[in-house]
Amino acid sequence: MAGGELIHLFEKQSQEIIIIREQEDTFQMVNKEKGFKDYFCKTNKDVQIREIKYDTIAYIKEGMVEQLIKDHSELLQKADAVYIAGGLLDKVTHYIEKWGGNRPILIGHDMNESIYHAFEQDLITASICQDPVAQSAFTLKKLTQYFLDEDNNSIESYIVKPEIVTKANAKYYMNRAK
Predict the structure, then answer these.
(1) Which of 70, 87, 108, 178 has the CA that lies 20 to 30 A from 36?
(2) DSSP class of residue 162?
(3) Rounded to whole angstroms, how far apart are CA atoms 161 and 178?
(4) What gap in Å lies between CA 123 and CA 125, rounded to an integer?
(5) Which residues make beta-bridge pairs with 128?
(6) How far is it, in rounded angstroms, from Cα 97 to Cα 87?
């Protein structure tokens, strides 16, 4: 739901919205897409949502990302907003940068050096991420409890809350708080 809400917060007049997601119907992808679409349904927003799906091998093969963007460039350039539900945010920005003119609102996931630079160039509007240190700490804690046969809480108690990164606060995620 966060992706849809962010798009609405940044541009209330968005009409043409694209969700880019993996082809595989993994638990994560299904729930991201469902939450995204549910936001617009629950708030009665009159939007056109189009899907672009890609094979997860695109994570590895840059040429596949380039082809994906070329195949859908007209649709993407007409969009008011694009939500990238998979892990291609940092790869897609290289192509959007070349469009010039009006660029769509771009919402995605994760934070890394490439995404940070894309924020600096105003290519990305927001990114949804989770603290990797907290994720690791929770995992280690859960494993330790398991091996010590201690009381095991339900898995829900170990979910790391999502955080919204924008250009204004991206530096804190990259240890550049100067």
Answers:
(1) 70
(2) P
(3) 25
(4) 7
(5) 109, 164
(6) 18
Q: Which helix (H) or strand (E) holds 66?
A: helix 62-71
The model carries a pTM of 0.84
Please, which residues have CB within 8 angstroms of residue 167's CB and are 6 or more apart in sequence?
Answer: 119, 120, 122, 124
In angstroms, the Cα distances linking 157 to 28, 36, 161 are 18, 24, 11
User: 104: which strand partners?
Assistant: none
Token readout for 104 is 């769509």
Distances (CA, A) of 172 to 29, 102, 128, 129, 134: 28, 28, 14, 13, 15
Give 69-138 as a DSSP string. HHHTHHHHHH-SEEEE-SS-HHHHHHHHGGG-SS--EEEEE---HHHHHHHHTT--SEEEE--HHHHHHH
